[in-house]
Each structure stands twice: as structure tokens, then as C-alpha cells.
Specification:
Elements lengths: L5 H15 L6 H5 L6 H13 L3 E4 L4 E4 L2 H12 L3 H15 L2 E8 L2 E8 L14 E2 L5 H7 L4 H8 L15 H14 L2 E4 L6 E9 L5 E10 L5 H5 L2 H19 L1 H11 L1
Antiparallel strand pairs: 1-2, 3-4, 3-8, 4-5, 6-7, 7-8
Helix pairs in contact: 1-3, 5-10, 10-11
Length: 266
């Protein structure tokens, strides 16, 4: 939670804590490791319950995410996610390449997978739509980080954990910065088994006409059936798809800005 966010920030932090368990939780579960006194935590849980974003089971004495979040999540998915706009493009790309296709956006310094198409022969991996993953060691994460402006990139890099998941994981900010500079030069990123052993990908940023990061797109496979050179050969296929998604999303989300940009180029 950012300092100065007050009660709203604390309430959202508690909501995140409840959600992180992936199951109904008791008060003691949430209290363990929470930076709030018992009375404060209880008051925050009561407020969230009264507002319908949490539910409380009096028989089991447990808290769980409330149905109101479903409505909010659907609205966010429709209004802020690239998924509705990108769906037909993901379908087409998936059929063309036969590998797993991911669509992701940045969420508070992490990667949020907003959509996914499985390969013709699916392989087991961490990513699923709605799941959050690290930005510093995933192809889609690095593709987005590389195109953030200086101050924003500094802020997001400071939020990374730099935990080493594999021998290939970049373990510090300096190594990551060097990698991001290379990504920006060539225009796309790789995952070289940095998050999961045997999982590799090539990823492309999705950018507005002015270079604003909207998200990223990747084609992912395993070292058991392909290699990075073969995935890199798909860049010519992936790039126009990312550009089409960007154009559709920008015209939908920022229609006035898109018109201004077109006027400037006229």
C-alpha cells in the first residue's frame, strides 16, 4: 500500500490479502502478517463486508470475496482490459501459429494475464487469464517494461522482487535495465526459461501511436518442441497483430487523442 492512501488504501490492502488465499479465510488468517492492530483490521473487514465486496459466513466464521466484485470485475474487463478488443486477433493468431498465445497488461508493477489461447497441443504452465505474474522475468512483462518512460520505468523496476525462479532469471535491476535496452532496440522480448524451466516465448509490446504502453502479446512454447530461433521467426506474424490490437484499442479507448494524432500526421 502506498503511504498517504489512508483508509481506502488500507481497505484495498485487506481485500488483496483476503483474495491472496484463494479460499475463505478466518480473521486470524488475515491478521497473521497484517500491519494493522486487531481493532483496525476488524473494522476494515466489517466495512468491506457491509459494502458487499466481502461476504462473511457466520457458521464457519470465514470471509470470502463478495459478489459485488464480479460486477466490478466484469466492468473493468469490458472498459479497461484489452481482451474484448483483442479477442478476434488472438483467435486468428492462435490458429496460425499453433502455439500458446498470451495477452497481458501491467498491474501495479506486475503482469496481469487478461486472455490466453492454448496451443494445438497444450503444455502445462503458470499463466492463466486473470492470474498475476512477475514482470521482470516474463516475456510480456519485459516487453512492456522496455517501453515505459524513464520515471515510470524506475518506479516499476523498484517494485520487482528479483527472486531467482531459474538459472536464467535476471536477479537485479542493472541486469534487467541492460536487457530492456536491448529489447527496445530490436522491438520484442524473449523469455529464456526465466520464470519456468522449459518454457520459452517471444513477446511484442502493444503501443499507442504516441508510444504509450497498452499491453503485450506473446507466443509461448516449450524447449521440448521448439527453440527461440523458431519463435523469433514468428515476429513477422506477431508484429502486425499487436499493431492491429493497438489501433483498435486506441480508437476505442482514446478516440479524441487518436483523432489529434491523425491530424498532426496529415
Amino acid at each position: 500500500m502506498a503511504s498517504g492512501d489512508g483508509t481506502v488504501g488500507k481497505a484495498l490492502d485487506v481485500l488483496d490479502r483476503v483474495a491472496s488465499f484463494g479460499r475463505p479465510v478466518r480473521f486470524s488468517d488475515v491478521l497473521d502478517g497484517a500491519p494493522y492492530p486487531k481493532a483496525t483490521l476488524y473494522r476494515l473487514l466489517q466495512t468491506l463486508t457491509h459494502q458487499g465486496v466481502l461476504t462473511f459466513d457466520p457458521d464457519r466464521q470465514t470471509y470470502a470475496l463478495g459478489i459485488r466484485l464480479v460486477r466490478l470485475a466484469h466492468a473493468a474487463w469490458t472498459q479497461s482490459s484489452l481482451a474484448p478488443v483483442a479477442r478476434p486477433f488472438l483467435d486468428s493468431l492462435s490458429k496460425q501459429v499453433g502455439e500458446t498465445v498470451h495477452l497481458a497488461q501491467l498491474d501495479n508493477g506486475q503482469v496481469l494475464y487478461v486472455d490466453k489461447r492454448n496451443a494445438t497441443r497444450p503444455i502445462q504452465m503458470f499463466s492463466e487469464a486473470g492470474k498475476v505474474g512477475p514482470a521482470y522475468c516474463t516475456g510480456v512483462g519485459k516487453a512492456m517494461l522496455a517501453y515505459l518512460d524513464g520515471p515510470e520505468q524506475d518506479r516499476v523496476l523498484s517494485q520487482q522482487s528479483y527472486h531467482r525462479f531459474t538459472d536464467g532469471t535476471l536477479g537485479d535491476a542493472d541486469s534487467l535495465r541492460a536487457e530492456l535496452a536491448e529489447i527496445r532496440k530490436r522491438g520484442y522480448a524473449f523469455d529464456r526459461e526465466e520464470h519456468e524451466p522449459g518454457i520459452i516465448c517471444v513477446a511484442m509490446p502493444i503501443l499507442t501511436r504516441r508510444g504509450r504502453v497498452l499491453g503485450a502479446l506473446s507466443v509461448t512454447s516449450s524447449t521440448a518442441r521448439t527453440d527461440l530461433a523458431a519463435l523469433e521467426a514468428l515476429v513477422a506474424v506477431i508484429r502486425p497483430v499487436s499493431e492491429r490490437i493497438a489501433a483498435e484499442a486506441e480508437d476505442w479507448r482514446f478516440p479524441d487523442e487518436a483523432k489529434d494524432t491523425l491530424k498532426m500526421g496529415a
